[in-house]
Each structure stands twice: as structure tokens, then as C-alpha cells.
Task: inverse folding
């Protein structure tokens, strides 16, 4: 499966460079016998951020069957350094050796050379879906850790819509704005590219600078290749462990998205993380506290909070996918509890969205999207986290104790109008309902709650929706329940 991904990527780059190959070779011929051409000259000739100086392409390699391994090596070495690094991350040379020893190299090259992956035939979005499918199949075959490799496209769209939902000034067509987005667990770059597509679809004049870090070499290689083809600044995507070796130390960002691995221990980097926590405190990334070693997802959450652009400079918004552990694990005084306390007392939590189960390949665990912001608009929404619903149950049958503080269920695919109800404290009214006290707590002087159909914007309701108490959510097909 790894060989399939790297071969598919090689064929993609081969097709992307096909139209300008002769221009690159002509430029090289004009400078024959002189000093090597600077990389920018060859990039301009190739009309890409990368190039290949070989006269060969995959079809020419296929036509010389007796020298196929030798020619493939030469072709790979002729790529520009950034593109070469991609195949080194795949350990592509050793894979070619194994295929050649087993007499399969020619057959594999023949299969991929027959596939037309030119951008005119397969755009970047379709190519991304193809890579996602390969990754999904690989995760199923290898039984990888739940949610570690692949985030469904519907979930990404939901997260992207939610981090941009307040930013009319950025989405307004014609405004030449520049914003930054960061993913500390970038994977193959799906969240970054989806955010860019969303922004440019609304405002073609806007520019989104992408930053990221990825531990897995092959995922990093795919991400880098995708951004390379799109003309992005690939030096902003760095390899390595985000928790122990921050590749973007000191940087702050406008937007952040992430799907960190669930239930994966951080024992390998424990010494580095604890040292930063003890020595730097709140001046570092992990000041509020440390979760148990068996699950490091809240460390990624703290890492992202530390990289929020200050509110005085415009602020930042975060979307992160987590399992139920950060919500419910840890008693009072534990690391998890102190982290939650910090987020609430700092007024950063804007919404927590419960996703349907079985959305993530290879796992059926409950997952949630957290939306955090340090620039909540309007006095009503500032400092009011403890008086607004935090979690909206994704299923009417969910245990009440897990959905305490919720108003009801809303599903994005029906374009709901979710009522923003303010209570004395989170869950106060719902405890009374559960205990059988009728309509539940209602603050003095406030009118009774409207009928359920009106409250949740169900079909057939003829009641008007109050703009002060309603929030129109983007259209999605994932069936997510949303609270805000």
C-alpha cells in the first residue's frame, strides 16, 4: 500500500510537469557548459515550485524495460531538492529494490504510467480524495490507532465552516486580506487545503498562509507534495514531534485546526514536556497542567491555545477534534480538570459539537469538535461560557449525565436554527427536568420556553425566529449536533 501511494504521487508529479518539460530542457541546453542554473530560473520554466531536469518521464522509462530500475533512480535524482525529499520520506528507493528483486517493478510502473493524473483530468481536490482513500484502506489493513491517520472530509468541512463563521470581513469578496492557519498534526494536509478552498471560494482575493507539523514521514511527504503543486510555501510545513520539538516556536496564528491522535500515550516525550511545564509555567505551552500520560490529546489543545494571536491583534479561532476523554476524564484537581478550568476561566470555549459515532474509519468511539476563540463578538457572548450551553447531545437517547447543560438535538443536514438559551448555570434547568419538577428552572421575569418545534427550527413551525436567540449554522451532511 505504501508503494502504491508513492507511485501514485510520482505519476502525479510526472503529469504536472509534462506540459513544461521541453521548456525546462531548452533552458538547460541554453546554459550547457556554464554554471548550473539557479533554482528560480528552472521553477519559472516549469511554472511550478519544483522541476525535473531529466530527459526521461515515466513513459520513456517504461519503454526501456532492461534499464527500468537504473532509469527510475536517475529520474528521481533529477527532481528539485524539495520534491526529492518527498520520495526520501517514503523510502522509495528501498521499495523499488524490493519490487525489482521480486520481478514486479515493470508491472507496477506499467500500471501507473497508464493512468492519466494530469491536472486537466484530475484536479487537486480529486487527487486529495484519492490519497485519502488509499490512507483509509491502509489504516483498515494495518489496524492503526483510532483516528490517527484520517479525518473524514465532512468533519473537516464542518470545522472549517465553524472557524470562519464569524469572519464576514475575511469572507467578503474583493477584500485583499492575508491570514494564517496552522495544523500541529497536519497529516496529509486535508484540513489546511480545505480551509484555503473555503476562503478563496468566498473571496478569491484573500490569501491563506499555511503552517503545519507532522510526525509521520509518509503523511508529511503527501502534504508537502500537495502544497508544492499548489504553489504554497512548503518550508512552512515541518517534520517532527509537535510536543517535544515545536517547529513553529514563537509564532501566533489567526486560525488553527487539528485532529490529534486519541488515547495515544506521550511517555516518549514526557521528560521534555514536564520540563517545559515546570520551568516555564504559563510562559510555556503547558502551564495550566498536564493530563495523564496515557492520552496526550489535551497537550495538543494547550499547544494550540498558546499559539492564538492575541485579542488586541485580531485574536484567533481554533477547531480541534477530540474524543470524550478531555470532557469527562479527571476529578477535581487533576491535570485534565485544571486544563478545563483554565479554558473556561479564560473564556476561550465557544462551542463543543458532538459528532455521530462511526464517522471515523476504524473506530466507533464518540468524538467531539471543540471551537475555541479569544475574540468573541458582543458583550452578551463575552465572559458567559458558564451560562451558555456547552454540549448539545448528538442523539436524543444519549445519557443525560453526559449531555448535561444541553437544550436539545439539532442536525446540520437539516440546516437547523439552534436556540441560544442562557441559564443560571450550565445544566441547572435540566437537572430539575430530570428530577421531575416539570418545566425546569426559568429565571425570574423571563418568558416560558417556546414549543420544541419552534425552539429547534423544525419543519412546519410557523413561529418567527428571534435573531437575538438564533444562530444559523452551515449546511453539512455529517449529522453533527451543534452547541454554541
Result:
Amino acid at each position: 500500500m505504501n508503494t502504491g501511494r508513492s507511485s501514485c504521487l510520482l505519476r502525479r508529479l510526472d503529469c504536472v510537469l509534462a506540459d513544461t518539460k521541453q521548456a525546462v530542457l531548452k533552458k538547460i541546453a541554453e546554459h550547457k557548459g556554464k554554471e548550473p542554473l539557479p533554482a528560480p530560473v528552472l521553477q519559472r520554466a516549469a511554472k511550478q515550485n519544483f522541476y525535473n531536469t531529466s530527459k526521461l518521464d515515466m513513459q520513456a522509462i517504461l519503454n526501456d524495460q532492461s534499464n527500468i530500475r537504473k532509469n527510475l533512480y536517475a529520474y528521481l535524482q533529477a527532481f528539485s531538492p524539495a520534491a526529492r525529499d518527498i520520495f526520501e520520506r517514503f523510502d522509495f528507493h528501498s521499495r523499488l529494490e524490493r519490487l525489482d528483486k521480486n520481478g514486479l517493478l515493470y508491472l507496477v510502473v506499467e500500471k501507473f504510467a497508464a493512468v492519466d493524473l494530469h491536472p486537466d483530468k484530475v484536479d487537486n481536490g480529486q487527487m486529495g480524495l484519492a490519497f485519502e482513500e488509499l490512507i483509509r484502506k491502509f489504516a483498515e489493513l494495518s489496524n492503526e490507532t483510532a483516528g490517527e491517520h484520517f479525518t473524514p472530509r465532512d468533519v473537516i468541512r464542518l470545522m472549517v465552516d465553524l472557524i470562519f463563521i464569524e469572519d464576514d470581513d475575511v469572507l467578503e469578496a474583493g477584500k485583499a486580506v492575508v491570514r494564517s492557519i496552522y495544523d500541529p498534526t497536519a497529516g496529509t494536509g486535508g484540513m489546511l487545503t480545505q480551509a484555503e478552498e473555503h476562503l478563496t471560494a468566498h473571496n478569491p482575493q484573500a490569501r491563506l498562509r499555511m503552517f503545519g507539523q507532522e510526525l509521520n514521514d509518509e503523511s508529511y511527504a503527501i502534504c508537502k507534495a500537495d502544497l508544492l503543486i499548489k504553489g504554497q510555501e512548503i518550508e512552512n510545513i515541518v517534520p517532527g514531534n509537535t510536543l517535544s520539538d515545536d517547529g513553529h516556536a514563537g509564532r501566533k496564528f489567526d486560525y488553527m485546526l487539528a485532529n490529534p491522535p486519541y488515547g495515544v500515550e506521550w511517555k516518549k516525550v514526557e521528560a521534555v514536556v514536564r520540563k517545559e511545564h515546570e520551568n516555564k509555567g504559563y510562559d510555556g505551552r503547558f502551564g495550566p497542567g498536564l493530563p495523564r500520560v496515557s492520552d496526550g490529546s489535551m497537550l495538543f489543545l494547550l499547544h494550540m491555545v498558546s499559539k492564538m494571536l492575541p485579542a488586541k491583534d485580531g485574536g484567533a479561532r481554533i477547531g480541534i477534534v477530540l474524543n470524550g476523554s478531555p470532557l469527562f476524564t479527571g476529578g477535581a484537581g487533576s491535570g485534565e480538570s485544571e486544563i478545563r478550568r483554565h479554558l473556561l476561566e479564560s473564556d476561550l470555549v465557544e462551542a463543543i459539537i458532538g459528532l455521530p459515532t462511526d464517522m471515523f474509519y476504524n473506530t466507533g468511539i464518540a468524538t467531539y469538535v471543540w471551537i475555541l476563540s479569544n475574540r468573541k463578538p458582543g458583550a452578551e457572548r463575552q465572559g458567559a461560557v458558564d451560562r451558555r450551553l456547552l454540549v448539545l447531545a448528538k442523539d436524543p437517547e444519549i445519557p443525560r449525565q453526559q449531555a448535561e447543560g444541553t437544550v436539545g438535538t439539532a442536525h446540520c443536514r437539516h440546516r437547523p436554527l439552534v436556540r441560544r438559551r442562557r441559564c443560571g448555570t450550565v445544566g441547572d434547568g435540566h437537572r430539575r427536568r430530570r428530577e421531575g419538577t416539570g418545566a425546569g428552572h426559568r429565571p425570574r421575569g423571563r418568558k416560558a420556553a417556546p414549543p420544541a418545534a419552534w425552539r429547534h427550527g423544525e419543519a412546519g413551525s410557523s413561529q418567527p425566529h428571534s435573531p437575538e436567540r438564533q444562530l444559523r449554522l452551515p449546511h453539512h451532511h455529517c449529522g453533527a449536533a451543534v452547541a454554541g
About this structure: Residues 385-484 have pLDDT under 50 and may be disordered.
